[in-house]
Amino acid sequence: MPATKSSLINRLNNNFARLKPVGIREFDAKASQVPGIVKLTLGEPDFNVPDAMKEAAIKSINDNDSHYAPGVGTIALRKAIAHFLNDRYQLDYDSNGEIAVTIGATQGIYAALATLINPGDEVLIATPTFPLYMAITTMLGGQVVEIDTSADDFVLTPEKLKAAIADQPTAKALILNYPSNPTGVTYTAAQIEELAGAVKDTDLVVIADEIYSELVYDGGHTSIAKFIPEQTLLLNGASKSHAMTGYRIGFIAGPKQLMGPVSALSGMMITSATDSAMAAATAAFGTDAGHQATLTMKKAYQERRDFLVGALQKLGFELATPRGAFYVFAKIPAAFGTDDVAFATKLAEKGKVAVIPGSYFGAGGQGFLRLSYATSIDNLKTAVDRIAAFLKED
């Protein structure tokens, strides 16, 4: 095996040294080594890809659909995405110039931020949240400004947002993820309208990661793009709504003059998404079968949520009922302290249940645990029984 030339080690991008460890994948990998462990760690749907999506992918392969697609994605998929956004959220985007297909929402996050951020630019991020936003901002030389929402039940209030804008008047972007990973918190239409009002008179670009928008259990999802489309870059994709994580299809939608450079940069990064995966996503976003598949999965998630929330509350965990996504963000019972990493490590090693420490998700997460209910009800029941036994013994 080759060894790196020692003199090269100090020639890497200087921003690597600024990165904080994310830890989610590493914690999951370590916990996975415990024999017989039940994992409630990753946001990975346990459903198979629906048949209509698989059939579309197979047809694409059999039809020799194997050549370069446009950098922004096939026109069929972009039209299906435009239909999806209009049908579900009453948003009006042109499939030509206002939508770009990405390799999952993850690559879309990078493309959006890389288009906007110059070294030193501040990015406002409501936390706790998916830590990749902080990591990418840091790698681009930007400055992360965390807005801790834990005192407000993990909801970003207009008052707190206005205060952050006043403190950072030159901030370039606001990242808003809802329904939230890790908390499951989402916003009503009135709340989103108020946040949009706080942003409207600024030059902030809102990067709205709405990847869990189809998994809202109580009421519907309202995109902030409904109120301030002129300064919103909307991210979404097929991974969570259609259990298509391995197909890696996401998208960005936004106003044409913003999407021009975003699309160009995205195309430089990926050339284009995979033809057969885009064919599957076209069926996901553009057909009744795709919609019905999501509704079936959502019903199962809601049943799992209701079971897990009730069971954890009986065990002494404090938590609000998550209204979206497939995560519970639970406060460790007071008798066990606030060291969430130590608690989660011991729970994995002794209790044989793997969860993710809340502090991995930024300011406001310490003392909490994220539990994913994107797994079977049987696994959840086993996990609850083991957690109960662990709390009694520890």
UniProtKB/TrEMBL annotation:
GO terms for biological process: amino acid metabolic process. InterPro entries: Aminotransferase_I/II_large, AspAT/PAT-like, NHTrfase_class1_PyrdxlP-BS, PyrdxlP-dep_Trfase, PyrdxlP-dep_Trfase_major, PyrdxlP-dep_Trfase_small. Its EC number is 2.6.1.-. The keyword Transferase applies. Its cofactor is pyridoxal 5'-phosphate. It is an enzyme of class 2 (transferase). Keywords: Aminotransferase, Pyridoxal phosphate, Transferase. Residues 37-387 form the Aminotransferase class I/classII large domain. Belongs to the class-I pyridoxal-phosphate-dependent aminotransferase family. Pfam families: Aminotran_1_2. GO terms for molecular function: pyridoxal phosphate binding; transaminase activity. This is Aminotransferase. Gene3D superfamilies: Aspartate Aminotransferase, domain 1, Type I PLP-dependent aspartate aminotransferase-like (Major domain). The keyword Manganese does not apply.
